[in-house]
Each structure stands twice: as structure tokens, then as C-alpha cells.
Specification:
The complex is a heterodimer of chains A (about 400) and B (about 210).
Chain A (H helix, E strand, L loop, with lengths): L2 H11 L3 H8 L5 H13 L3 H14 L5 H17 L8 H12 L3 H17 L3 H11 L6 H17 L3 H18 L2 H15 L3 E5 L2 E5 L1 H9 L3 E4 L4 E4 L2 E4 L4 H13 L4 E2 H9 L6 H17 L4 E5 L3 E6 L5 E5 L7 H7 L7 H8 L3 H13 L4 E3 L6 E3 L20
Parallel strand pairs in A: 3-9
Antiparallel strand pairs in A: 1-2, 1-9, 3-4, 4-5, 6-8, 7-8, 10-11
Helix pairs in contact in A: 1-2, 1-3, 2-3, 3-4, 3-5, 4-5, 5-6, 5-7, 6-7, 7-8, 7-9, 8-9, 9-10, 9-11, 10-11, 13-14, 13-15, 17-18
Chain B lengths: L1 E4 L2 E5 L10 E4 L4 E4 L4 E4 L6 E5 L7 E3 L3 E6 L2 E6 L5 E6 L6 E7 L2 E6 L4 E5 L6 E6 L4 E7 L2 E8 L2 E7 L6 E6 L7 E5 L4 E5 L6 E5 L5
Parallel strand pairs in B: 1-18
Antiparallel strand pairs in B: 2-21, 3-4, 4-5, 5-6, 7-8, 8-9, 9-10, 11-12, 12-13, 13-14, 15-16, 16-17, 17-18, 19-20, 20-21
The chains are: A alpha+beta (about 400), B mainly beta (about 210).
């Protein structure tokens, strides 16, 4: 269409964002705003890029639906990469539909992948899979193929299906070498490393050893009674008792499992589960109550038997009791344990679950956020907290294909 | 106003290495089109690219009988058609918002895309002699038999329309099929228009309606 726009778009495509900016820096028409937005995104100024793309989407006329939709897609990708997850998904879905309707398959697929990545990030695995299925198995060019396979791998990792994850990563690696984009190759490699790095610690009979994700998967299929500190649950195969909202019961279960087959003294249980420094009669009474509750919870797998000193776990139908713990137990592990269910939590819900004050939880979350161990989205009462990006999630900007080419 | 569907008589391309057509002109034997960093001459009989000139070519293209005129960024370059050498250049009236280019009656006619305007420009100085307002985004511009035609492309719709050069009033309109773009327009002086297909990367021949 326009001379300078065409010249700037060519510069962008050739990987010269500054050359593109030079040509449209002072222009404020819709295509110039969009080109400036893409150039700023490529230069890493995501906040500026977002503003420019939003103005561009507004500035395009009502008849320029495709151009407008491409701006929305670009903005959604920037939001995703900046972990601005509270954004309504509706606009992106509408943009995707518009692109599909007008035969812009490449950008419609790109929009679908952005949506799937967002869903993976917020732990909505079924929804992420649904979007991938909607996009269909049609052959993709190498770069989007890498993105797709990374999302598939991310879902498989979350679902503890390491074989599927490895297969997807092998496909991703092949596509990445075809695409020749170093960022994508690095992304695939780092996801592969996740599979080859201990994902957990196995504690049993006073002994501990690191476990790879594959071994965690095997454990899930084994006979063992597992006290799972990732999900605050006790499980054997598909029978799962969640103690997520019962931290005291979970603490007792863990202490008993770690000592198994030995018993644990009342004092040790009270100190461990109640954080009690000086044990008195009221603690003893409380322990009796809590053990009673735990007994009821663990009924499907085990009994909690009273011994001379205290209590012992006596599992049924299995000869193995293990504790599955994080590779490194850290401060605020309890907060992380809740968040590792992949769901977004409000701080007040966490406080409730942990049985502590909102202020304590907030402090823990702030500290964890500073070291990038948790992330939040939304503001005020709508603010939610989650675990950081799951592995297998492409983090770079790919941006919609030919945004403005005529 | 007469309105009808455009009759596409032939399609040229896609051409290897061409991902978009920005401007189109005709020198009496070859159809020239601008593809970003090249001007390409297509033999309208064989449909093959006969030769290419390495010049910046971001929008409209025109031919005055000896020279090619080509919009590059915010300038209009005058190019020796034989050697491909840039002889002179003048500022483009739209400052880079320029789209189509035509040569007629000793003037250059330049479409300014989003401003929906066509400027008549002195080819030596770049001075704007007058401006015609259109109702739609202007792409290619051409003159034939005293008729001023221009391509439009707004949103997803394109057409080729004849306008009154004095009032800008639309006299006749040829609608292209939905999703078909017009970027660049040139008459062959007879009953054909050549128009660029934008990102489609091809050139189409469209029949010009008979008068009378």
C-alpha cells in the first residue's frame, strides 16, 4: 500500500527494527503505529510496544479487520511474555476467528498457540489441549511447529507423562534445527534438561535419593504409599487423599511416613506438627484429636497405630511407604506446596489453607516473587498467585507473521 | 454510476522471490512491477520475467515513454529503463504515505493511500499542481483515453474505479472478487488493465469496459 510502510515492513522482516523505526518514527497513522509497536517489541521495550499496538488496533478502520486482529495477536503475545495473565482471553479468541475467516491461517495458528501457552501457564491443561486440537494436526512451518511441540511437552510434563514429553521434545528439536532460530533451539534444550534434572527427592526408611521426573512417574504407578509434599496429598496409585487444606494432618502424615516402619514419639509429633516448643497437656489432647482425624483420612491405605512411645503408620496392601519431597526444601515450602497444584490462588485462600495470617502469607509471597519462584496476575482482590512458568513453555517473542505486508 | 464485477482475463505469477507487488506500469511491450528491491519486466505473452532492475521499489511505478518512475520510501525516483540507473529524484507528495503512480499529460499522478487523495505533481520539481479527493484508500492510478482510473483497497475489499478528475465523483466501478487486492494499476492503452495483487505476489489483467 504505502511506500514508507512497505519499506519499513521490509526492514522489520530483514531483522532491522531500527531501520524500520527510522522510516516511521514520526508517523502516527495506524500501520506506522503497528510497525513501531513490533519494532519496539523486538528491541525489548514491551511496555511501549504494548501501548503502540493498542493504539494501532484502535486507529485501523472498521473495514481493516485483519490488520486490527494482527495487532491484537501481537499485543496478546507481548502480554503473555510479560506474564500479564489477567488479560481477557475473549479479544484474542475473536482476533483468531477473524484471521481464520479471512484465510490468514498462519496468524490464526499463531493466535491459537498464544492462547494454548497462556492456558498451560495458568494450569488449565484440558483447555490448552482443546485449543491445540482445534488447530488440528495440519503440518506447520518449523517455527510454529516448535511452539506447538513445546506446549505439548509442557502439558505432558505437568501430567507426568515423560514418554510423551520426550517424544514431543524430539519433534521440537528437529523443527527447531529446521527453523534455525537459536532462541527456539535453546528453549528445547532447556526443556530437555528439566527431564534430566532431579525433579524430586524420595525419602524412605531414613534414607533419601534424588528422583528424575520419569522415576516420579514410575512411583505414581507403583504400589507404594506416597506422602506427596508437592500436592500435599497422600496417595497410592489412583487413590488420592488431599490434605491441602489440613496442614497439621499433612505434617503428621509426613513425619510418620518418614519414620516408617519405626514409630514416632508424641513429643516429636507435637513439635513437628504444632511447632510447639513447650509441650503441655492441651497439646497432648490436641494430638489425640488430630491423630483421630488423620486415621479417618488415611483409612483407604493405612492405620495409625498407637505404640508405647507414640504412633506408627501401618500401611495396608503395600510394603513401601515413601515421602516425595522437593529436591531442595526451602523456606516457604508450604506456600509453594499449595501453589504447585498449578491453580491460581488468592493470598487470602492461601492464608486460610495454611492456617496463618494474611500478612504472613503476603510476606512469604512477596519474598518468593522476588526470587521468581512465584508470580501473580491481576490487581487488588482479584490478584492471584501461581507457580512460575512450567517447563516446555516457549518464552520468547515470535510475533505474528507479516503484520502489514501488502 | 455504473458498477460491475471485474473480469479478470489473465493472471501472471506468482514469481520466484517475489512476495508482494507494490506498483505496476506498462512500457508498450512489457509489464513492469515493483517488488520491494526490484523492478521486474514481464512479457505479457509468455508471463515470464524478461529482466529485472535492482532499485528500491516500495510503491507505485510509472513510465513516461523513456523513463521509469518509481516511489521509494518518501521519494519518486526517475530511472533509466535501459540501464536501471537512478537519474534524479523528487520528494513524494505524501511524504511516504504514497501508493500509486501514473504518468499522463506531462504530469505525475500520485495516490496517497490513507489520505484518499490523488495529487498531480510536476515531474521535474515535485510541486503539487492540484489534488483530487477520492472516497476510498487509493492504490494504483492510471490515465487512459482521458479517463482517470484508480485502484482502491480498504479493509478486505478492492475495486478499480473511474473518477471525474475535477470533482472526484465515482463514474464507474469494477469490483474485484472478495479477498483480491489491487496494488498498482496501469492501462495498456487498449482494453486491458494490469493490476498488482499485493501480498498475493501476482499481477492480473482485467478487461476495461468498452465505451459507447
Amino acid at each position: 500500500m504505502e511506500s514508507l510502510i512497505n519499506a519499513a515492513a521490509r526492514a522489520l522482516e530483514a531483522g532491522d527494527p531500527l531501520g524500520a523505526l527510522n522510516r516511521v518514527a514520526l508517523r502516527n497513522d495506524a500501520p506506522s503505529l503497528a510497525l513501531r509497536g513490533i519494532a519496539m517489541a523486538q528491541l525489548g521495550d514491551l511496555a511501549k510496544a504494548k501501548t503502540l499496538l493498542r493504539s494501532a488496533a484502535r486507529a485501523f478502520g472498521p473495514r481493516e479487520a485483519v490488520a486490527r486482529a494482527r495487532c491484537v495477536v501481537a499485543e496478546a503475545e507481548i502480554a503473555l511474555v510479560s506474564r500479564d495473565l489477567g488479560r481477557p482471553a475473549k479479544m484474542l479468541a475473536a482476533a483468531r476467528a477473524t484471521l481464520e475467516k479471512h484465510g490468514d491461517v498462519a496468524n490464526a495458528t499463531h493466535a491459537g498457540h498464544i492462547e494454548a501457552r497462556r492456558l498451560l501457564l495458568v494450569g488449565q491443561l484440558d483447555e490448552a489441549e482443546r485449543i491445540l486440537a482445534e488447530l488440528g494436526p495440519s503440518p506447520l512451518p518449523p517455527a510454529p511447529q516448535v511452539v506447538r511441540e513445546l506446549v505439548v511437552a509442557g502439558i505432558a510434563i505437568r501430567r507426568l507423562r515423560t514418554k510423551d514429553a520426550r517424544a514431543a521434545l524430539a519433534r521440537a528439536a528437529r523443527a527447531a534445527s529446521l527453523a534455525g532460530i537459536p532462541g527456539l533451539t535453546a528453549e528445547v534444550e532447556s526443556t530437555n534438561r528439566v527431564l534430566d534434572t532431579p525433579a524430586a527427592r524420595l525419602i524412605t526408611r531414613g534414607d533419601e535419593r534424588p528422583l528424575l521426573l520419569e522415576q516420579v512417574e514410575e512411583l505414581a504407578a507403583s504400589d507404594a504409599l506416597v506422602v506427596d509434599t508437592f500436592h500435599h496429598s497422600v496417595r497410592r496409585r489412583s487413590t488420592i487423599v488431599s490434605l491441602g487444606t489440613r496442614p497439621v494432618l499433612f505434617a503428621l502424615a509426613r513425619i510418620l511416613a518418614q519414620a516408617w516402619p519405626a514409630d514416632v514419639t508424641r513429643e516429636a509429633l507435637m513439635a513437628g506438627a504444632f511447632r510447639a516448643r513447650h509441650v503441655d497437656e492441651s497439646h497432648r489432647a490436641r494430638l489425640r484429636v488430630e491423630i483421630g482425624r488423620l486415621r479417618a483420612k488415611l483409612k483407604p491405605f493405612a492405620d495409625v497405630a498407637a505404640t508405647k512411645q507414640g504412633f506408627a503408620l501401618t500401611p495396608r496392601k503395600t510394603r513401601q511407604v515413601v515421602v516425595l519431597a522437593r529436591p531442595v526444601e526451602e523456606k516457604h515450602a508450604a506456600v509453594l506446596a499449595f501453589l504447585s497444584d498449578g491453580e491460581p490462588w488468592s493470598s487470602s485462600a492461601l492464608a486460610l489453607a495454611l492456617g496463618t495470617s494474611a500478612r504472613t502469607v503476603q510476606r512469604a509471597l512477596d519474598e518468593l516473587a522476588r526470587s521468581n519462584k512465584v508470580q501473580s496476575f491481576g490487581h487488588g482482590r482479584a490478584r492471584r498467585w501461581m507457580m512460575p512458568p512450567v517447563p516446555g513453555f516457549p518464552t520468547g517473542l515470535l510475533l505474528p507473521g507479516p503484520l502489514l505486508k501488502t | 454510476m455504473k458498477r460491475s464485477a471485474a473480469e479478470i482475463v489473465r493472471e501472471y505469477g506468482p514469481f520466484a522471490g517475489v512476495d508482494a507487488v507494490h506498483g505496476v506500469t506498462y512500457d508498450g511491450s512489457h509489464v513492469w512491477f515493483a517488488s520491494g528491491d526490484k523492478l521486474n519486466a514481464v512479457d505479457p505473452e509468455s508471463g515470464k520475467i524478461a529482466r529485472s532492475l535492482d532499485v528500491a521499489a516500495h510503491a507505485g511505478t510509472a513510465f513516461d515513454g523513456r523513463h521509469l518512475f518509481q516511489i521509494a520510501e518518501d521519494r519518486i525516483q526517475k530511472i533509466d529503463a535501459a540501464s536501471g540507473k537512478v537519474l534524479t529524484s523528487i520528494p513524494a507528495p505524501g511524504g511516504g504515505g504514497d501508493s500509486g503512480l501514473a504518468w499522463a499529460e506531462g504530469s505525475l499522478w500520485v495516490g496517497q493511500y490513507r489520505e484518499r487523495k490523488i495529487h498531480q505533481v510536476d515531474p521535474d520539481t515535485g510541486k503539487v499542481l492540484r489534488t483530487i479527493e477520492s472516497k476510498r484508500f487509493v492504490t494504483g492510478v492510471t490515465w487512459v483515453d482521458g479517463e482517470l482510473w484508480h485502484g482502491t483497497w480498504e479493509g478486505e475489499d478492492s475495486d478499480i474505479r473511474r473518477i471525474d478528475p475535477d470533482t472526484g465523483k465515482v463514474l464507474e466501478q469494477l469490483d474485484l472478487p472478495a479477498g483480491t487486492m489491487v496494488s498498482g494499476l496501469e492501462s495498456d492503452g487498449g482494453d486491458r488493465f494490469f493490476c498488482g495483487g499485493g501480498a498475493n505476489g501476482n499481477v492480473r489483467a482485467v478487461r476495461r469496459p468498452r465505451r459507447g
